[in-house]
Amino acid sequence: QEQSAKVLVLIHSDNGGTYELAKEVKKGIESYKNVEAIIKQVKKSDNPKLKNIPIASVEELITYDGIAFGSPIYFGNISTGMSEFLAKTTNLWSKHALEGTPATVFMSAGSGAGKELALQSFWNSLAVHGMILVPNGISGMENIDKTIPQGNAVLGTTSLVSLNNVERPSKSERYLAELQGKKFAKVALALRKNKVIENDNKTIIKESKIDINQILKQKNIELPSLPQPVGNYQLFKKSGNLVYINQVALKDGKIVNPGKLGIDVNEEQVKEATRVTMLNIISILKEATGGDLNRVKQCVQLIGTFNTVDSFTKHADLMNTASDLTVEIFGEKGKHTRNTQGAYSLPVGSSVSISAIFEIE
Ligand SMILES: Cc1cc2nc3c(=O)[nH]c(=O)nc-3n(C[C@H](O)[C@H](O)[C@H](O)COP(=O)(O)O)c2cc1C
């Protein structure tokens, strides 16, 4: 089966000059067999030329096989809009999420003052991400019109829009941008093949790039503040890469829905207590990972104990509340082995108690 690759052309543009170049870059990318490109912008624009271009999210960056970045030049630098967007990528950065992804840059300039500096400054940010930077070198130089100033530069194409003796981007600038796209597509596709081989070898687990904090936010799951120990024990204990945590349904210093199922509380109330208990565990787990739940490699085991009347047998139903929550938050990594049991009584009147073992990085 033939491999295909998907490239994002990510731009900021005020007046549309960068967008004009982006269209040429896209054309070049798509002239390469089996590579498709999509243009998105870093933020909303009211400019009629730009207002229908979709907005990219930070999270989606990891889903592309390459990213061509385009920005206006501001004072020999990338534009504020592009800079603001890149400032939001620190989470991806700390997880090495863009490492090894190819990147190339192009810019719309006024006079072109400081264009090499500006392209270089673009590279600075992307190099910190560990992206593989693809320059233009002097490719295409033999074919451009040298009778007028052109935005050619070795790190990427620029367009000199304030030199308005000809329409900008000039024909030569458009040609260079298209060529840049084509050369970039070749790299993105080649590295894509590499990535697929690594995937097959299970050295890259895509799931590891999913941000747990984002998932918590999207699903409106709020972690409680850390419960306090009510005896001579630790909230968690690490042994090697394993973290051990045990909790009951304590919330704001009080037990939620206390008592025995079948006498004091019903199944729904115990399920609510089970969710509170599991959230306590995840809050403690966050503490154990130094505040970064993305370090959780897997949930190894959960043990749920429920205070029920003798005849009760549906412990598994109750415990699913905790199991479902764990899988909802951690995805595949949240799947675990499990033991559920009934008890005659539980500490501080809780209807549920959970023991958890997690593996962290
Ligand atoms: C704050 C600011 C700083 C700028 N600095 C430079 C510069 O250093 N060099 C340059 O050639 N053009 C500079 N320009 C001009 C823009 O790069 C130029 O207008 C560009 O084409 C805008 O791209 P756009 O059409 O995609 O918005 C600057 C513009 C602004 C607003």
Identify the CATH homologous superfamily of the largest domain. Flavodoxin domain
Which CATH C-level class of the largest domain is it? Alpha Beta
Model regions low in confidence, pLDDT < 50 over at least 5 residues: 201-208
Number of strands: 14
- Ligands present: flavin mononucleotide
Derived structural class:
alpha/beta
CATH topology of the largest domain: Rossmann fold
Helical coverage, percent range: 25-40%
Number of self-contained structural domains: 2
Q: Report the order of strands and helices.
A: EHEEEHHEHEEHHEEEEHEHEE
- What is the multimeric organization of the chains shown? single chain
**Main sheet, how many strands, which sense, barrel?**
7 strands, mixed
Return Rg in Å. Answer: 27 Å
Mean pLDDT: 93
InterPro entries: Endoribo_LPSP/chorism_mut-like (IPR013813), Flavodoxin/NO_synth (IPR008254), Flavoprotein-like_sf (IPR029039), FMN_Rdtase-like_dom (IPR005025), RutC-like_sf (IPR035959)
Keywords: Signal
GO molecular function: FMN binding; oxidoreductase activity
Protein name: NAD(P)H dehydrogenase (Quinone)
